[in-house]
Known about the structure:
The strands form five sheets. The chain has a five-stranded parallel sheet, sandwiched between helices. A five-stranded parallel sheet has the order 13-14-15-12-16, with helices on both faces. A four-stranded mixed sheet has the order 1-4-6-5, with helices on both faces. 42% of the residues lie in helices and 14% in strands. It is built from 25 helices and 18 strands. The two termini are 50 Å apart. The radius of gyration is 29 Å and the shape is elongated. The chain is an alpha/beta fold. Strand 7, helix 6 (146-159) and strand 8 (163-166) form a beta-alpha-beta unit.
Amino acid sequence: GMALLFSTDVTAPARCARELAGKLAGLRVRMGIHSGLVQRQTDISGNENVTGEGINTAQRIMDFADEGFILLTPQHAGWLQQFDEWRPHVKPLGEGITKHGERLAVFSLCGDGFGRPGLPSKIAANSEAVAKKRICLLYKRAAQPDGDLLTELERHLEGLGYEVFVDRHLKIGVDWARAIEEKIRSADAVVALVSDASLGSEMLEYELETAQDAFLKNGKPSVLPVRIGSDRQLDGAIGAIVNPLQFTVWAGAGDTQRVLTSIVSALTEPLKPKVEARQLEPVGGAVSPDSPFYVARDSDPECLQAIRSRESIILIKGPRQVGKTSLLGRGVKLATENGSRVAITDFQKLSAAQLSSEEAFYKLLAATLARQLKFKYDFGDEWLDVFGSNMNMDNFIRALLEDAETPFVWFMDEVDRLFGAPFASDFFGLVRSWHNSRATEPRGPWSRFTVVIGYATEAHLFIQDLNQSPFNVGRQFLLHSFTLEQTASLNELYGSPITSQSQVVELHALIAGQPFVTRRALDALSRGGLDFDGLMASATRDDGPFGDHLKRILISVSQMPEVLGAMRASLNNLDISDSEGFHRLLAAGIVEQTANSKITFASELYRRYIGAHVH
């Protein structure tokens, strides 16, 4: 066997599996696919290898397969179901139990010439346990489209081995009434189809009240509402029962597969109960180093170790709102706790006038550093015109370092503001010279000096001489959006307002882990103004939870005519790599460039919103 890793395209594993199934026809082959975390490392033989949850879970899901099957975890199934090409080929199979007793929802990938229909033997062996789960389907008789969805649910759940009860199979009478109450109270779960047509149904109201009473007394059945046509708050007795519950929304035939998957996930995945959330913080801006909502990423420990080791130049790069300033804040905290002298310069705070004059800029930098560090410097006697701005700044930094043996860490944030300044190359050349001075002046003070730079735009676009650039000698840390696992971790920090893994997958598929948008989503859910389906339904609306963020992005795009024209031509194949605004969009985090140089939107959310407004 072997493990194949794909790092840039979420559909690549499925495409590879489909192709392998055709090429290896006649061989006994089984496959398992998962989307998860992997880590590169050197193994005991000195070879590069990979390890981690991503590979372990893929193997566990493969272990449920017989030859010919291509099995998927809920995480990867959730990804594929976002694509029209793949959605019809993803089939929920039920639940499997690993050798460690862990329960995993299992999906199959099958179609013409790849995969296998039906149940693998290990899943079929578990169907006896599944069959013991009794499901009641509640609905209003003679209501449409309720009846059509009911038929799909019944057929689907019975096909997975569940014991399904629908009251249309009983003759109305006294025995009918008793049987319904008995079936509801003995069920493991009830799935209630709630539409505008059913709101006035006294029978549905009675059935839901019975299920609620049984749950309060015995802890079951769980109530899984399917809201048909709308996610609005409901009035009356039915609304009082359904509104507080997690629910899924069905708005048409295109939602059927998603609803079926959601119901099966709720039946097979143990839902995490909501826990008391921490006191919420405002969303936006840097996250405090002490915030309980800070999510550490793979680059965090390496970056902090570089600061701890007093490396010369440390570069933190990433698009807007991805967490650069938050990581800088953690670096400031660490350097301060380690006894270093620390100064912070946020170039975003400088005015256009302060960036127009080289002399004014350097004097301002030196004066603010002197004030932050309480360092007395005689600018009248030491800052002399004959030396010029660069030499004066160099003399100032040398004097600052020689004033104390304590290491000095200078944190520079939003340095992109300098890239367009006429003196940018000279300034960054000066920073590079401080790095070089560690080698040319081994007895000088430069080993005590660390510069940490946060930026988003490609520096080489503005700095002509790369030999005079600090951006190709420092340790660079690239910040990316949250992974699926990091999104799930942040959800737990918020008190698990999203209670199932399949919903975490669905949210991540929409927003691609963009840190600000992820926090905004979890904040909205935690404050109780929206449930999950309401959040997803309103995600691209101007008055939705992401409205202000999306409108800012639309303004950014609208200000670039050449980019706007390319987007009008095709939202699915962005030909903008040669446009003037391309790197601005990259820095803003609106688009991203894949390993094969293809330009795509950074998230499905952005693609949908811009697509709805670009005509």
